[in-house]
Write a structure and sequence with these properties.
Structural class: alpha/beta
Enzyme class: hydrolase
GO biological process, one term: rRNA 5'-end processing
Subcellular location: Cytoplasm
Distance between the termini: 19 Å
Order of helices and strands: EEEHEHEHH
Shape: globular
CATH superfamily: YqgF/RNase H-like domain
Number of strands: 5
EC number: 3.1.-.-
Function: Could be a nuclease involved in processing of the 5'-end of pre-16S rRNA.
Length: about 130
């Protein structure tokens, strides 16, 4: 059984989810809210040390037609930084419709649930291949 962490990257917050390769069920874990890049990676490092994932899954946003935009580039960079800083394999998953699946409630942070949807999509796609 190996642990897998999923990430919904944002400029202000990073949603984190956890799952494993046996149950293949993602669940929300945390929301990283550090104000600085160093602070964000310090919190991410603590989670990675605690959970020791075999893989990190990062949501890759795109326009509905599949075209890339500014956040697509930022998410690729984030995935590369996760891999480079923590030496954990990282994969990207299309997250175009992950936010649409979550019903937004005023004042509620949904980033960790979006990360869980991204991670669950990875598990579901992998079981189909």
């Amino acid at each position: 059984m190996e642990t897998v962490l999923g990430f919904d990257f944002g400029l202000k917050r990073i949603g984190v989810a956890v799952g494993n390769t046996v149950l293949r069920q993602a669940q929300p874990l945390a929301v990283i809210r550090a104000a600085t890049n160093d602070g964000k990676f310090a919190e991410l490092g603590a989670l990675i040390r605690e959970w020791q994932p075999a893989l990190c899954v990062v949501g890759l946003p795109r326009h509905p037609d599949g075209a890339e935009h500014e956040m697509t580039v930022r998410c690729r960079r984030f995935a590369n930084q996760l891999h480079g800083r923590f030496d954990v394999p990282t994969v990207l998953v299309d997250e175009r419709y992950s936010s649409a699946v979550i019903s937004y409630q005023r004042g509620e942070t949904i980033d960790d649930r979006a990360a869980a949807i991204i991670l669950q999509q990875y598990f579901d796609d992998e079981s189909q291949s």
